Every structure is written in structure tokens, then in C-alpha cells.
């Protein structure tokens, strides 16, 4: 280790020299390499791995540096901490960049990874690089294929023709979750619908279980987003027989309004549209269907949008009263939700009401509010409240409050054979097919004699051909590679063709947390012994933008692997924390076009990684984020240099001085600082933690020229300061610890503990109120009596301003908090 040390001037802080020195020592000593150790409690800490775009931007730092600090803190608490790193290496950006630059995606990706590795190391994080994973390597994606085969055998993977979202620029299919406001989440291009044969994972099998979050600590916002995305609805499925011979099935959450259904509306994509459309209506219907396919679900379902639709010319019968009702199509009905058909009850649904008014369709009231009589002719909007059923045959007078009417009507529908109670979900099965090159090949073979045949496990991985033409054409680039496509059927030995679609890259990240545990294990996707020790992840950190994609897919994968007997727990991540984002100094999102991008490499070269880390944690609460400030980071740089001066200039001072009152006060301050800082870092409140340390340094600075520096209290204070800084500024703390004579490494030391008596506050802020309004705040001793507190409050000049000419009726004292003076 000594050979790696370089001389550092005692009187100057040189972060570039210090950081290179300690990064080299850490690598030589393998300090962050961890193994299973049953004698210690484990802590699996994980931050979302990056896409290898080529540059580590400030957003990466904001996600990773605070997460690293939290992992280091757990290590100092005595946990055996695993904090791995890897690269989400498959996907469209690499392929698109390769097309633009004329370089193979593999080469582009691996060159970027090499660059980003160096940048990540410059951060000083405690990543265990021996566990690195790169998802575009066969060693990894072989197991994507293996999982696919297990899912296929167990009915969790299937192929079906379906209308899918197509991005014309990326030339590939997108999952529902990858379409944002009608545009591709990657490139922003407007998307449209196409009918294609696609592979799906049956995530809907777990819809009900995915609604449960028992035993995990996740942000309420993420839980709400996932529950809304799953979209559970209770109601009834009802059949409307058509005059063309088929039946339209409708799911409704309000079967108690069936008697008010005066027309049906089908999604433009509904298969019965073709059957029901009369010849005279066909041209108009076909034009409308074509237009709807170009619109996103967001656009089609916008509540403030003018309602459009076309009459098919066909009719159906309302099963509860036999009434003949027309069948329309409209783009606000979606094929992907429910049955793709709705019964329109315009008196009690606003969209149906507006549609009926637009096209002159009948409106029938079937729920009257108590004490009122609704008249369809004078209604200005639908009535969606409670009341009692009317115009509803045997159910007239039935109250709708509390769901009683829904339950009774549903039971009646089942007795009459007209429908049945049902639960539906907004969640659709996960579409994993992609018509692109840079992804995991789907391990399926098509044989004219044997049909669809899974690739035998002993023939995995199915390798991506290195010489494929990956320019986008609208079909998979693998289709044109005859050496890849043409193969032999593993069942009959005859000629066969490989599946040419590749997998959605979210498959890679749905289980990567388990591959980190044994990245080179070749007998399965992960070593069961390693999983038994480390899994599940104790703390996961990353962006909330992954709430309804990666985070939900990872939960589905874990539950599926549990049911396959590969795992014995239900959730992948026990705790989740979502960080905010860093904005530019102009308070706008950083982008090259705005010219407000902050380059972390430049900052590290100028100020050092520790200053960048500290500033990112000080800038704002981690979950919120905030705008970058050049003045702010300069202030943090000054703080670091003050810490350096205070510790290095007194490191060799002997502790031969007496413990004066000032020294005893310092000792109390040290223990109070440990207490508050420990609470802050435990809750990821890094900004307030650093503020406390700044206050502590201010107090130390004020004592630097006094005799206190020659006391044991001073030595305790500087050693404590160094230990408290260790998770935040790992290089600085390591250098200071060495200068204080501590054993290598500061990151192998225990987190400081505090004495509760010494840490007890000596004063508190007493709030003075007059008639409940705050008029003053006073710093008072913690042992103040009630009468003393009242006397001080009454004597307050600010309170006196509001007491003149008034009679004091009484005073209210809340111990340790406030005095309220009540006047008459």
C-alpha cells in the first residue's frame, strides 16, 4: 500500500492528487470487494444501472453519489454491504447511434462502457467492480433466453396478433408504457397503430398481486401510480345480441344503469365493426377507423375533446328490456381496455351525454336523486350521483348508495343468464417483441412440420450475428441474415426458421439485481446460495420515471420466478427511494440546446470529486432536486478547505491541555452533532446533514486559536468530523484519517456513537404567541420552569407590542414548545 502513496503538501488541499492516490489504494487493496459473511448482517444496496450513452452526466452523479453515501453509512454501521454496478447495454439508442455513425452497436456500446467506467471510478463510489454486468454480452442474455423458455413452458409467454404502437422513426414496436402523450418515449416521434404478430409476457396473471405492497417501504406516489396503471375495476360482463348474428360483450362498472343504455359504442378496432357495418356506411366507417389508428390513447380519451363517431348501420338488443339500440364506433372507446365496447348511458355518464347530444341520440334517466326529478330535455350534464333506480323494471325504487343496486342487479343478471360479475384491469400483457437488431434474440424456431418449437436449453445462447445489417427497414434486421434465420428443427431435424424479433430491453433490467450476486455463474441465472444470502435488495434508489415500467416489470419477474421455484420471496426491492432531478442554473431541465448542461468531468478536474459529491447532496432535499448554482458549489469548496485546514493544522497537537469549560462544551457539541447527523443520513436528508456539519466546523473554527485544540475533546471532535464526513467525501476523509494517525481505512471504521446525556440539548426555541399568532422566538434553557417561561414571554418586546391596552385573560404553556398569551 505504501508504494501507492504520493507526497501531499501538508498546508494545501490538492483534491486531484489526493483522489488519485486513494482510488489507486482502494483498487490495490480491493477494499470494496465483498463476499458472503454469515457472521454479519447483510445489506444489499442498489442504484439503477446506467445506459452506456458515452458520458456520465450530472444527473448520473445526482442519482449515484448520495446513494453511495447511504451505502457507506450502512457499512460503517457494521453491515456487510453489497453495492454493485453494471450497464444496461442493449437498446435503441445504441442502434440508432450506430446507424448515424456507421459503427457497429457492439463497438459503440463497449467503447462507451470503457469511458463511463473511468468516470464512475472518478466518483469515488464503493462499487464492487468484480460483480459488473453488461447486458449485451452472451454471458448475460443467455439467461434472458432461458427465462423466456421457462415462461413459455408455463404459459407466461405467448404469441398473438394485436394492434401495437409503432414508431416510424425507431422502426419498432413500443409497449404501452413506452408511449408518452402519443409519442415515442425515446425519440419523441408521433406513433400509430399496426397489427402484428407479437410475443407477450402474461403479466396480467399477477395483476391482483401487483396491487399489494405489503412488507415493502415504497413511496406512496409510486404505489399510487402502479395501482392506477393496473386499474382494477369491479362490475359485470353483459351480452348484447346483434341483428347480424354475433354478440357484443360489454363490461360495465354500473350494471344498475343497464336500463338507461340507449346505444352501444365500439372501439374502431373492434372485430365486429366489419360485421355490423352496412354497405352504405362502409366508406365513412373505413375513413374513421384509419384516422383513429393515427391517434394516441391520450388524445382519444381526452375529456375536453369534441366527441366524434360514426353509426355502423347495425343494431343490437338491450338484454334487460329488449329495446333495439344502434351501434356506433367512436375513438374514445379503446380496444385495449375492457372488451373494446361500451353500453352508452348518456343520462349518467358525461362522455356518453356529450356524444348523445352531438348526434341526437336518446337520453333516458334511470337514477333519480332523492327529492329531485331529472328531465332529459333540460339536463345540461350527466348525473353521476346516488339516488334510486327508475325506469328499471323490477328494480324501480332500489337505492344506489353503498353499491346495493349494483350487487342486486349483478345477481339478477347471473340468474337470468344475461351476464356475470367480473373484475377487469387496465393492465395489458407485456409486449416484449422488438423488430430491431440490438437486443436479446427470442429463442423460438418455426418448423412447417412441428410448428412453434422452443430452442433447447443446451443450445443457448442464441447469438446475435455480428455481421447483420442493422439499418431499420420496418422488419427485424435479422430477417435478412440467412445464416441466422435458416436452421434445423430440434424436434424433427428438418429445415426451420428462427424467430427474428428481439426482446424488449426491460427484460434485462427485470432480474439484473439477481445476476449481480453471481455474475459469472454458468449453471443457472444466479447462484441459489448467493441469492439465499443477499436477496432481496434492501435499498433501491433511482428515478420515479420507472414507476410503471421497470419497477413493475421487476416485481412481475420476481413473482413469476417465485412460482417457478427459483426464489422464495415476493418482492425484489424492500425499500425504494426516488431522487429528484438537477436543473440548470436557469431553473430549466438541462439540455445541450439550452446550453445549460453541467459537465461533471470539468468540475472534478477543477474542484475534485468530493466537492461535487458534497454540493449535489447539499443543493436540496435529495427527493426534490433543484437548480445548479456555481456560487453554491464555490461555497462547498470553501467549506472543504476549512475542514482541511482545521484537521491538518491540529493533527499533531498533543492532548496535554486541561478539560476547560470550553472543552466540555465542545464535547457536548460533538455528541449532539453525531446524534443529529445520524438521524439525517438515516433518512437520506443529506442537505440538512451537511448543514449540521457546517455549523460544527464553524464552532471548531472559532476555537482553533484557543487552548482547546490541545485537549482530548478537540481530538475527539476532529476524529468525529472525519468519520462523519467519510460517507459524503470519501477521499478527503481517508486522507484526513491517515493524518490523524488512524488505521487504514476510514471506511472500515465504525460510525461514531453518542452519549445521550452529552447529546441532550441545553436550550430550545420557545415560541411566543399572542392569541395564537407567533410574535417572537426565544432561546431558553431546557430546564426552564413554567413560570420562568411565562415571565420571559410577557417581557418579550415583540409580544409587548401586541399587548398594549389589552387585558391578559390567561397564559397557556406547552412544555418545551411555546407560551400563548390570550387577551380579552
Walk me through what this model shows.
Helix content is 35%, strand content 18%. By secondary structure, the protein is an alpha+beta fold. A 4-stranded parallel beta sheet has the order 2-1-24-25, covered by helices on one side. A 4-stranded antiparallel beta sheet has the order 4-3-7-17. A 4-stranded mixed beta sheet has the order 11-12-10-13. The longest helix has 22 residues, at 661-682. The chain is globular and about 100 Å long. The N and C termini lie far apart (76 Å). The model is unreliable at 1-9 (pLDDT under 50).
Name the descriptors.
alpha+beta, four-stranded antiparallel beta sheet, 27 helices, disordered N terminus
